[in-house]
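User
New here, help please:
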Amino acid sequence: MQLNLNKRQQYVLWATVRYYIATAEPVGSKTLVDEYNLKVSPATIRNAMGNLEKAGLLYQPHTSAGRVPSDSGYRIYVDRMITPSETLSREMELALRDRLNWNNWTLEALMRGAAQILATLSGYIALITWPQTSTARLMHLQLVQIEPNKMVMVVVTDSYHTQSVMVDVPPPPENEDADPDLLESELQILSNFLNSQLRGQSLTALSELDWSDLGREFEHYAESIGQWLAELARKAHTPATTGIFISGLAEVLRQPEFSELNQVQTLVQLLEEEQEQLWPLIFESPALEGSGRRVNVRIGAENLLEPIRTCTLVSSTYHRGSTPIGSVGVLGPTRMMYENAIASVEAAADYLSAALS
């Protein structure tokens, strides 16, 4: 939004937003003069607020009330008047590093713990998506015999997902008898071969394995294992789970913006039962290329989903290398401490990018 505000108008807008965020009360000109020790009369501030209202940046919820920021006013405030809080960014980084145990916790526990920390420090609803398996790469594969004619194939990816499948052991070549000791040795050789060929490969490339480097005595394994690898690759092409780890809902719902029961019900339903609608909004790279911003900030009506059109969604992606694999976000009222919300989301995204890489 291109608006030419003079210095007084900019300061009045900044002060109005700050005061309203802190109190949730409409702001009058005398309040600003008193709270911010302004060296001008309330009439002068009232004139500036009137001009801001004409520009669509403030509005009066009631005729006799003071003014509150509009979505456009918050947008100017976020884009031009603030910088993320370095203090909260450091606090978030330290909390994630100190409280999460990557050696002993499952990925689910780690993601859930990160969401709880983000919600606690930001003061808003934390949303963290699963790492997406379509970008995952194979870290380890193992073939293990469990019955005379059955084996299990276990695949571990670098996003800490484990998949296993039971596979029929192919019959031995003609004129050869089944030998359990030989089978165990062959499965280990096969496991070593598959790891050497596939480690570090995207799951979507697993079906392209060249079996020509494997000796002829292993050819009878190629079809059954190749079919399962192709199936795994096919699944990797489909969208991964849209599950979102959510924390902090109860605290945010105590805010006055959520005093109406119908509004609370629609928001809770969205978060608990309709996450597939919310997921595309969160899993999105920042839209402002060249701006230096690493987060998306969707304010009020900028959110297309009706249950959150009175909220602000701050989100950023976390990466493996240069590839986005998941997203971190916070959701709260438009009356949000944007400096803290942006800082906490950036710090959490940076931490998960480093940890999962």
Summary: Confidence is low (pLDDT under 50) at residues 287-291.
